[in-house]
């Protein structure tokens, strides 16, 4: 039997795929050895008490969360010496491995069976260390099975479990975070620039981000030829001079009055499933503040945002969220652009770009017609715009799909199957909920 030789391009793609598979296997194996090494160096309470009596005795250290074995203090040093790594780096690796092996066993199995990357597994381990054993096991069950996990989704799930376990502590954490807000100006990579970093109240941070974009847009309309991001950076200096900023923004509105500040209207959108309703947990969007993007907030913090943004006497409009299990609740339309309810439905159903490997939030994506839209005046059929024919694609991957001969279709389980220009079939798993 004669085998058809692979084309050079296909050979390169296969080589890249094999290299990533080998790296995933190697990363998973290294994580397993780190867990094994930690478990080989337990310290009993009696040994710890004996060590405490010596000035330079070996102590025990808690590398992982509640219920995981404590580890001999000097154990990371030997493994670090063999690997040629810093001891601190190896201690972090051992801690993540122990957290996964001892407290997140399903996630650990997903990593070993290459259903989940080590990097995402370690990120999850960092997030769950402060949870109780029951809380960690709850997260483990909710996120097991691999699939298209993202860091924001992982953080949201852990935040919800933390809120469920100890609402008072979650509220205290929010207040402590607000109390530690700060802004720093640091030296840049060259003497020409500075680096601006900080922790802000969510509403203030979003307002600042919007103001930067607003000033950058006006600068572009006035003829500034710099790129949008450069104009946003210039906007920081303009906003530092209130009179200049007001003059610039008012020129855009054609008025001379002062800025009206924050918006006077907001929509409160609560995304609730039955389990969330039972636990009285809230994930929402407050006007321009997207709570889902920044984590799960307590109801007290949501109330504070509303009061701060709008004032206590402002009326809040609550929209019902569509039933994601029943696409027939959104009717097909003949026009190209989906109505607002349909757009909300699709973005809630698919929270990130559906291109393989992309994790950009669907709120920042275009809504693409899976089967290309053909205007009715040109012979297109009616009802082409409906949820089953729409999917969120970030601008980059929307252009790839449109101009680079990629095709895809939606699978019955909610995932997507893509076909590349070389004929390779790639599945994107359904979103995790």
TrEMBL record:
Q: What GO molecular functions are on record for this protein?
A: endonuclease activity
Q: Which UniProt keywords apply?
A: Endonuclease, Hydrolase, Nuclease
Question: InterPro entries annotated for this entry?
Answer: HNH_nuc
**Protein name (record):** HNH endonuclease
């Amino acid at each position: 039997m004669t085998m058809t030789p692979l084309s050079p391009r296909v050979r390169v793609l296969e080589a890249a795929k094999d290299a990533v598979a080998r790296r995933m296997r190697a990363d998973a194996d290294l994580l397993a050895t780190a867990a094994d090494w930690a478990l080989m160096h337990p310290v009993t309470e009696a040994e710890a008490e004996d060590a405490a009596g010596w000035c330079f005795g070996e102590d025990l250290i808690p590398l992982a969360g509640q219920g995981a074995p404590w580890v001999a203090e000097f154990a990371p040093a030997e493994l670090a010496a063999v690997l040629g790594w810093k001891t601190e780096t190896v201690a972090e690796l051992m801690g993540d491995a122990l957290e996964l092996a001892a407290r997140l066993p399903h996630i650990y199995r997903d990593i070993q069976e290459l259903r989940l990357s080590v990097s995402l597994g370690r990120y999850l381990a960092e997030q769950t260390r402060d949870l109780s054993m029951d809380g960690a096991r709850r997260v483990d069950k909710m996120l097991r099975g691999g699939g298209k996990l993202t860091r924001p989704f992982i953080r949201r799930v852990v935040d919800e479990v933390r809120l469920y376990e100890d609402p008072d502590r979650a509220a205290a954490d929010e207040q402590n975070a607000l109390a530690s807000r700060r802004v720093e100006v640091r030296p840049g990579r060259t003497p020409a620039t500075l680096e601006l970093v900080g922790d802000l109240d969510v509403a203030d941070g979003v307002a600042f981000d919007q103001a930067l974009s607003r000033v950058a847009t006006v600068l572009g309309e006035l003829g500034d030829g710099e790129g949008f991001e450069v104009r946003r950076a210039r906007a920081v200096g303009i906003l530092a001079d209130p009179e200049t900023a007001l003059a610039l923004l008012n020129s855009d509105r054609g008025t001379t009055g002062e800025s009206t500040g924050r918006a006077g209207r907001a929509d409160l959108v609560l995304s609730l499933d039955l389990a969330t309703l039972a636990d009285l947990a809230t994930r929402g969007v407050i006007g321009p503040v997207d709570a889902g993007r920044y984590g799960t907030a307590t109801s007290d913090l949501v109330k504070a945002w509303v009061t701060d943004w709008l004032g206590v006497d402002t009326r809040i409009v609550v929209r019902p969220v569509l039933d994601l299990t029943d696409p027939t609740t959104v009717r097909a339309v003949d026009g190209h652009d989906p109505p607002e309810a349909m757009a909300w439905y699709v973005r809630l159903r698919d929270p990130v770009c559906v291109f393989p490997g992309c994790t950009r939030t669907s709120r920042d994506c275009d809504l693409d017609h899976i089967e290309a839209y053909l205007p009715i005046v040109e012979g297109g059929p009616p009802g082409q715009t409906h949820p089953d024919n729409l999917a969120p694609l970030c601008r980059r991957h929307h252009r790839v799909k449109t101009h680079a001969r990629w095709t895809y279709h939606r699978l019955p389980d909610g995932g997507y199957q893509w076909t590349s220009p070389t004929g390779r079939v790639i599945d994107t798993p359904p979103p995790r909920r």
